[in-house]
Amino acid sequence: MSSGLETLNVHLAKAQPSTTYQMMDRVAARRASGAAVISLSAGEPDFDTPKHVCEAAIDAIRAGHTRYTPVSGIRSLREAVAEKFRTENNLDVQWQDTMVCNGGKHVIYNALAATLNEGDEVIVPAPYWVSYPEMVQMVGARPIIVSCGSDSNFKLTPELLRRAITTRTRWLILNSPSNPTGAVYTREDLSALAEVLLEHPHVLVLSDDIYEHLVFDGATFHTIASVEPRLQPQTLTMNGVSKAYAMTGWRIGFGTGPRWLLDAMEKLQGQQTSAASSISQHAALAALTGPRDFIRTTRAVFERRRNMMVEALNTTPGLSCQKPGGAFYAFASCAALIGRVTPAGIVLKSDEDVAIALLNEADVGVVHGSAFGLGPFIRIAYALDEVSLAKACDAIRNFCQSVR
Ligand code: GLU
């Protein structure tokens, strides 16, 4: 008889582990067995954190900034965050309207955990980043997945939004540029969604802007609370330094929203993790207040890689891909590979089979689209140098040509 020792929280038990991490682990395991895998699975910039940011962290240690900080972050960083939201996003924000958390994920989790009750609904447009529905699920609420296919460029439309809203809806999660599709919502897209949202003041909006600076083709980034300022009281706009400044390991995310929400998130964080690392906060301050050339340079590099990847994918038999407007992901349909047989004799029944076969037979790590709520696709993170990308493209092409 079971002692019950291993009984888990019922909501956690139902949630899935993070597929992006699972794929990174599979890549690591295959590398450990001696294979030279090129990983296009991890969604993180391949650049080093800028030198002046690292120096600021070292200075912070030397200056003794090694103790607890206020739960919502040090005043100077919150001021810099407020200034960022004012100048880059045209939002009306004072430092008291901001909060710093242990990474972007933590901002989102805090907000959901602070507000959701059993039976509450959260609208999650699919394809979605793997963690949104699971976080909703983990706090006992219901993710309402709204499928947004390639015909709407993988974007939520006002009609789909209107149909998904019920009296139980508490949040809508928006993510632009999107992980996993790279789709970018234009000002017009957001304004049309805002019109629907204004009719439903009981719905909060979580705008995940973490890929803000990676928008290509000369396009301008927009966030919903600045497109429609009347939405600001019901919007949590979140961002962080991970993607813009290649600081994924530093774990600094931040957000701005109504004070009642930030107070609740602070209460939660104060009982849970306390503030983010004091040293990382000083590093983030240097990133936000320092030179901007890193952002410009990396954007240009990612745009070049995007062009290269899309061209390669669209000339590979069995794959096809829309041109993503931002982030560092390509989301390619692999529908034409389903039902085929690999050289190792594996029948490709799903996009997950395609991803696993690419890893085992082509030594390329990608993540299957169904993990993001839409198959059969594969997500390719092109956050890697161009030589490695070219090798990966060749390996993918050879694999696709060899399936029967
Ligand atoms: N956001 C990245 C990705 O989608 C990092 C991994 C994660 O947190 O899911 O790959």
From TrEMBL:
<dbReference type="InterPro" id="IPR015421">
    <property type="entry name" value="PyrdxlP-dep_Trfase_major"/>
</dbReference>
<dbReference type="InterPro" id="IPR015424">
    <property type="entry name" value="PyrdxlP-dep_Trfase"/>
</dbReference>
<keyword id="KW-0808">Transferase</keyword>
<dbReference type="InterPro" id="IPR004839">
    <property type="entry name" value="Aminotransferase_I/II_large"/>
</dbReference>
<dbReference type="Pfam" id="PF00155">
    <property type="entry name" value="Aminotran_1_2"/>
</dbReference>
<feature type="domain" description="Aminotransferase class I/classII large">
    <location>
        <begin position="37"/>
        <end position="396"/>
    </location>
</feature>
<keyword id="KW-0032">Aminotransferase</keyword>
<keyword id="KW-0663">Pyridoxal phosphate</keyword>
<dbReference type="InterPro" id="IPR050596">
    <property type="entry name" value="AspAT/PAT-like"/>
</dbReference>
<dbReference type="InterPro" id="IPR015422">
    <property type="entry name" value="PyrdxlP-dep_Trfase_small"/>
</dbReference>
<protein>
    <recommendedName>
        <fullName>Aminotransferase</fullName>
        <ecNumber>2.6.1.-</ecNumber>
    </recommendedName>
</protein>
<dbReference type="GO" id="GO:0004069">
    <property type="term" value="F:L-aspartate:2-oxoglutarate aminotransferase activity"/>
</dbReference>
<dbReference type="InterPro" id="IPR004838">
    <property type="entry name" value="NHTrfase_class1_PyrdxlP-BS"/>
</dbReference>
<comment type="similarity">
    <text>Belongs to the class-I pyridoxal-phosphate-dependent aminotransferase family.</text>
</comment>
